[in-house]
Design a protein that fits this description.
Layout (H helix, E strand, L loop, with lengths): L24 H7 L8 E2 L5 E2 L11 H24 L15 E4 L2 H10 L2 E3 L5 E2 L5 E5 L6 E19 L2 E7 L6 E5 L5 E2 H5 L2 E3 L4 E3 L9 E2 L4 E11 L11 E5 L5 E4 L5 H10 L13 H18 L12 H11 L4 H19 L9 H7 L4 H12 L3 H10 L19 E5 L2 H5 L2 H9 L6 H6 L5 H13 L5 H16 L2 E2 L8 H8 L11 E3 L5 E2 L5 E2 L1 H12 L38 H4 L47 H7 L16 H7 L3 H26 L1
Parallel strand pairs: 4-16, 9-19, 12-13
Antiparallel strand pairs: 1-2, 3-6, 5-12, 6-11, 7-8, 7-9, 7-10, 7-14, 14-15, 14-16, 15-17, 17-18, 20-21
This protein binds a DNA duplex through β5, α5, α6, α8 and α19.
DNA sequence: TCTCACACCTTTGAAGTGG
DNA sequence: CCACTTCAAAGGTGTGAGA
């Protein structure tokens, strides 16, 4: 299936007029719908990103039918592929078989039961529950880049009415899509598998002009996070690398600017440590509120009235909350997830039976943490094949609410590969890829030596977020990552694709994700000129160092103590300052404080450092049955070419990471260098614009 | 429906302390 | 020097008033 191109459906303007001639626009338009929003420089030199318009809806019924058929076809194809796996240039030693387990599934499931809501603000909010995954089946020596993005789950706008989410109309125009690269990327499979991959730094915003690289979402719209595993030892190889996409249906959520469902609010308060102040057991306003409520209730009881609802949280629940409390944040997550992992290891080896779905509901109400873990694991052990069958035959549920009967656990991977041949041939694949936002011909643009302009379009977005990005780094990442987000054809893994997942991702109403403008923004992540990725505090430093620009205070930091802060440390914090201690004056301290207090988000050093591992290496293969599994059918021909070009695909020498020598080695590919140089030249113009803007 | 100031909380890491 | 404690800044959270 291929979307009809509707002329004028989306404004498509070249970002820089002097490069417009480089862009094979005609060829692109002839083959596929445009992907990019119109981007223009304002008079101040800042970038303006109008919201892209949508493609007219396809018939939802047709779309579903096609999706279902494509999924079944692909399932059959992959089954036969199992019998005779295709030969690729990958050696046996480097083969991998990634499986991904959603570590926070129990939380997600709880929230999903009531319709997960995610608050989005202008300044950006984290996701809660956090998206934490555990990977297994990776090649220990190969390097991987892990990414996450959030796509529209359907094409509707929702409203919360009568305590349930209802469709309230057609979706608003989509926001520019951005992908978040895990800050540790790239890292070896061993490193990824040795810990839980946490995407808690991903932030959501509704600010369309966001410059921090946060993921921009529309309020009151439903979204589906996706997890991508890209086998690449260098960020520059992303567009040519094999990558797989994993969708967990329970991570679907609705973006809101204010919570609608009180149950969700309460669950967030109960589970998010940062919201501890609002717990009934805390000293926050909620307690006062509750006290007030109790008084009212007492008054009501004494006066013969009764309240409809008992407090949501029982004492037992509070116990559970405390157990979950340490789950969330990075400081203690290692310990916690180590514990969880141990629990899982204990149980997962013995629970292989398919458990009925109601267990999920059951453990919601369990106060005892062990019980929750146990039950969670039981649900985790569901047979993935059964999942697949259910997904195929179970229809396409679109409901999303407290009465959501779906409660599906679709963990079959969506394998997305940059198999060029698949772009051109294979109608079935194209069908699917189409539905899954990977334009069939994308690789051509990656290969197209003249295809610089569309990269710049995405450079624009990368540069937008970044005071933090060096021009070269941003440029390199911009085009590469954008390429990944749109790259390749989605082929299905051996296990097939859950229709409902596809449906949600692509939009049942027929919205092809081709129309979503993916731009890899990575939320403050930057790529060094040599390909290493840094979190933005580092990138800030790196950028200033690399470009010798004047350092400015990062915009995301508060320049001074906020007025709303208590000027004096609370008494409970300083109850007994020893008299023998020298009084510390802030003036004495401050100059010493570095410009950023962020701890470097270190490249996982868990190799050989088990204490830093969330689980010991011995546990890495002890995943439950329901973890997703898929096979690589083929690598991108481009990828293969690069790999065979002398650059070490399996680069286990992490000590060289980011070094100039390694960078030179990595960039030995002439094409790559040429592209980079070309982009560098073109982006200088953007930088000058930005500099002028920042100093004005 | 959204924005913003706010109180309350955790996280973080430098400074301080004592053995 | 090292382990530990203290403490303040940074930043994450839901609330609630107002637009």
């Amino acid at each position: 299936m291929r979307d009809p191109l509707v002329p004028g459906d989306m404004a498509f303007q070249p970002f820089l007029t002097n490069t417009a001639s480089d862009f094979t626009l005609d060829a692109m338009l002839a083959r596929q719908p445009p992907f990019f929003p119109a981007i223009a420089l304002t008079s101040h030199g800042s970038l303006h990103l109008p919201v892209a318009q949508r493609h007219p809806m396809l018939d939802p019924v047709n779309a579903e039918t096609i999706l279902r058929k494509a999924s079944l076809e692909q399932h059959n194809a992959t089954q036969s592929a199992k019998l005779s796996p295709p030969k690729t240039l990958e050696t046996e030693a480097t083969e991998d078989d990634p499986k991904v387990h959603l570590e926070t599934r129990h939380l997600w499931t709880q929230f999903h039961k009531f319709g997960t809501e995610m608050v989005i603000t202008k300044s950006g909010r984290r996701m809660f529950p956090p998206f934490k995954a555990r990977c297994t089946g990776l090649n220990q020596r190969a390097k991987y880049i892990l990414l996450m993005d959030i796509v529209a789950a359907d094409d509707f706008r929702y409203k919360f009415h009568n305590s349930r989410w209802m469709v309230s109309g057609k979706a608003d125009p989509e926001m520019p899509k951005r992908m978040y690269i895990h800050p540790d990327s790239p890292a070896s499979g061993e490193q990824w598998m040795s810990k839980v991959v946490n995407f808690h730094k991903l932030k959501l915003t509704n600010n369309i002009s966001d410059k921090h690289g946060f993921t921009i979402l529309n309020s009151m719209h439903k979204y589906q996070p996706r997890f991508h595993v890209v086998r690449a030892n260098d960020i520059l190889k992303l567009p040519y690398s094999t990558f797989r996409t994993y969708v967990f249906s329970e991570t679907e959520f609705i973006a809101v600017t204010a919570y609608q469902n009180d149950k969700i609010t309460q669950m967030k308060i109960d589970n998010n440590p940062f919201a501890k102040g609002f717990r009934d057991t805390g000293n926050g306003r909620r307690e006062k509120k509750k006290q007030l409520g109790i008084n009212i209730q007492k008054f009501s009881e004494t006066s013969g009235d009764s309240l409809d609802e008992a407090p949501l949280k029982s004492a037992g629940n509070a116990k559970s909350i405390e157990g979950c409390q340490s789950d969330s944040e990075s400081g203690q997550e290692s310990k916690h997830w180590n514990n969880v992992g141990q629990d899982l290891r204990k149980i997962s080896t013995t629970t292989k039976e398919l458990k009925p779905e109601p267990n999920i509901t059951t453990f919601h109400d369990k106060a005892d943490r062990a019980s929750t873990d146990s039950l969670r694991t039981e649900t985790d052990s569901k047979d993935p094949k059964q999942d697949h069958i259910n997904a195929i035959t179970g229809g396409m549920t679109r409901c999303f609410g407290a009465e959501d009967p779906r409660a599906t656990e679709h963990f079959q991977p969506l394998t997305v590969e940059t198999d060029q041949s698949a772009h051109i041939t294979g109608l079935g694949r194209n069908k699917f890829s189409h539905c899954y936002s990977y334009p069939p011909d994308w690789t051509r643009y990656i290969l197209n030596p003249l295809g610089v302009t569309h990269r710049l379009l995405h450079n624009a977005q990368v540069n937008m977020q970044g005071e933090t990005l060096s021009s070269v780094a941003a440029t390199a990442m911009g085009h590469m990552l954008m390429a990944v987000s749109s790259d390749g054809v989605c082929t299905m893994g051996t296990a097939g694709i859950p229709v409902s997942s596809v449906q949600r991702v692509s939009g049942t109403s027929g919205l092809p994700l081709n129309f979503q403008q993916h731009a890899m923004a990575s939320q403050g992540l930057a790529v060094s000129p040599f390909g290493a990725i840094f979190p933005y505090p580092y990138s800030y430093l790196a950028a200033t160092a690399a470009l010798s620009t004047t350092a400015s205070t990062p915009v995301h930091r508060r320049p001074a103590t906020p007025v709303h802060r208590r000027p004096v440390t609370p008494a409970h914090r300083r109850p007994a300052t020893p008299a023998h201690r020298r009084p510390v004056t802030p003036v004495h301290r401050r100059p010493v404080r570095p410009p950023t207090r962020f701890r470097p988000y270190s490249i996982p050093n868990s190799v050989g450092l088990p204490d830093n591992c969330s689980t010991p290496p011995t546990s890495i293969h002890l995943m439950t049955d329901r973890d997703v599994n898929c096979h690589t059918i083929a690598n991108s021909p481009i990828d293969i070419g690069l790999q065979s070009n002398g650059a070490a695909e399996v680069d286990s020498d992490s000590s060289l990471q980011g070094s100039g020598a390694l960078a030179a080695k990595r960039l030995s590919n002439k094409d790559c260098m040429d592209q980079l140089q070309c982009i560098q030249q073109l982006v200088r113009g953007i930088d000058s614009y930005q500099d002028r803007d920042s100093y004005s």
